[in-house]
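Re: [help] complex structure
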Amino acid sequence: MVTPTQGSFDAVAMAADTSGGTARVEFTGTRRQLFGLLLRGYLLMLPTAGIYRFWVTTWKRRFYWQNTVIDGDALEYTGEAMQLLIGFLFAVAFFLPLYLVLFYLSTQAPEIIGFGYMIIGIVFWFMLGYAQYRARDFRLSRTLWRGIRFDQRGNAWAYALRRFLWSLLVLATLGLAFPLMATSLWRYRYNNSWYGDRQFRWTGTWKTIAGPFYLSYFAAGAGIVAALFVAESVPAISIEGVPLPGPAAQLAFLGAALFAGLMWFYFRSRETSRMFSEVWIGEARATVRVRGRSLLGQHLAYGLSVLVAAIVFALIALAVVAAAEGGTASVVIVDLTRSVQSSWIVLVGLILGYLVVFGTLGLLGEVFLGCGYWMLVARGATIANVESLRTVRAAGEDRALVGEGLADALNVGAY
Amino acid sequence: MLHARYADGHVAEVHDVACLLDGTELVIRDAATSADLDRWATTDVFPIPGRRDELRVGVSGRPYGARLVFAGGDDVSAAHQMMPALAHRHRENRGREMRALGLATMALVSVVVAYIYGVPLLARNFVSLVPAEWEEKLGTTAVAQIEGLLRQEAGFEVCDPDLDSLANRAIARFAERVVEGSGSPFTPDIKVIRTTVPNAFALPGGHSFYFSALLDQTHSPDEFAGVMAHELGHVVHRHGMEQLISTSATGLLIGFVLGDMTGLSVAGGIGATLVDSSFSRDAEREADRFAADAAKRLGFRSAGLVDLLERVAGDNEMSAALALLNTHPLTAERRTSLEALAVPDASATPPFTPAEWAAIKSMCGSTSTPSNAPAGGSGTRLDGTAKNG
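Output below.
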């Protein structure tokens, strides 16, 4: 039931007050629902030769959107599977000439092949930024809240160029320029985002994440240097002629890796909290608080679920082998392997096994990490001065956007 | 009277409203002020996917974002009763989606089938369009790669580099006679290489290799001639180039099915191997036929090829089970077809004189290479059109 407690009459009265109202964001979905939805979708991908993936994506987005309730009203995802399918076909058109180039290259001398692959790698890296921006455009322009559509404007090429150049600088500085890149890209994305006729703003600077970033960067670095120092000072051991660091040094490396992992969770949670907290829609401002330990907890849950799945699969495999070895079954199997059909059985088994393993990994990843992150951000978010949004008016219709095209083909993830 | 949340799609304001039916129109009345906010024709409404226990309704002829949201089982069923068009539209949408999905699936499956059967055809026809110079360049690259690969592990050294030696002249003359009249644009270039892997293969552009470890296990000139003729069959039919074309085309197909156009996924790799292996088995049969024809013309026993193959690898259960993944037809199958094809011409002279054969056998020094290289496994596959990296 819709509770009329936060009715519009209160809101109208409060709208005059410029400090009006801090809204909570809720997430009403559960992991179990998402799991059921994805499982059904994955199973339907088998008989449809993978075409169903566009429908799965659409369902998944509907799940995330409609369960995200801001100030009592849920988001709505208006995109359709056919749009994604058509967008994908467009992306294929981009790849065809690239395939011809690759083919031509493979007939050339080694130096030219190497050079050509490098060029194509760079083109891919550049196009990835373009694809990400267009994908964001597709999602935003298909998001409704209170009957008003969001939109992404700006230029995807300009964004791609920015991202490309910044990434070169980050590479050249061994990652030290990362805060500059991240803030520049966030700023471009949000300053070109719209809710109806109201523009988003992003007010952060590189200092927004500089503290957590450099702290975790240098702390993790120091851990690794310390481990190297330990490795230098303890005698190395040798196994079958291969020199290996001694047990103490191995322990030190393990410790350094674990420490670096913990620093990653610390940084990632601070980054999420601080970056999202610089987002404004007109006069309304978002505040997000995500804890590092919640993020860590999710990854542990994911690891545990993968472990459980691995044990279950191992038990099933053992049971199958045991059943096959029992009694006369083995004779039948030997006979089968002699026939041509048996190789089809082996083949189908291989393919199914592959699909099950990777499908399970993808499913668990989405349920524990993807959904988990969305839940953390949504539940950790509040929006101050939400009443100011009541005067937002719908903007004109968006130009027709065909699917996410490249983003899909380049495997750009993100919800 | 039915409660709902209402947004008009113009302004980001949500009203608590009461809905009532007035003829064929749904009256949307503000719960607080009792003012009529809008009237929707009940024939124009459509359902929008929403949460469980929630019904979202849009309407044509209003801004796209105009919405009524009913919540709770009772209100939802009451709303459905008020607007029977919703259920109708829902079924309609569902039917349309299913049809689209069915069509797309059928289209994709037919593309896949056409591809699996069409790739060899396509590659075969396309290969004649590729300039021979390209293939020669490709061959040079492949030689460099294979040399680099083998030099570390098994060694890679040309035996008897003197092109004018008895053995080399005999091999060159044999190769020339084998490709005679085939119209191949390539000059065969056969080298015997000192290495511990028992193998022989052809690369694009006419380069063929016979490894010393295989030569040690080669017992008769018929066996040697059979293998060489088979390899030259690959050269003449430009199988290396065909393979490259088919691999590129298969990558595209896999991209379609998996949606990963970069071809970086493991699934892509497995799929490509499957499609390509059936393709290259056809190429093996073609090379066998070529060898059988040459055997008939030149007067040697083409089944020697199979004798040697069985000696080196041998059929076992595992290789039979994995025949589909393997690029080579089973030796038993090959023997049957080779013997059926080749009845040596009585008037033909043997390809090698005893003196020449003795010279070829001792090219790398007969006992210089131990023939204890592991049998089976990927490194010991007897021959194969080298895939280009």
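Chain A touches chain B through 75 residues (CB under 8 Å).
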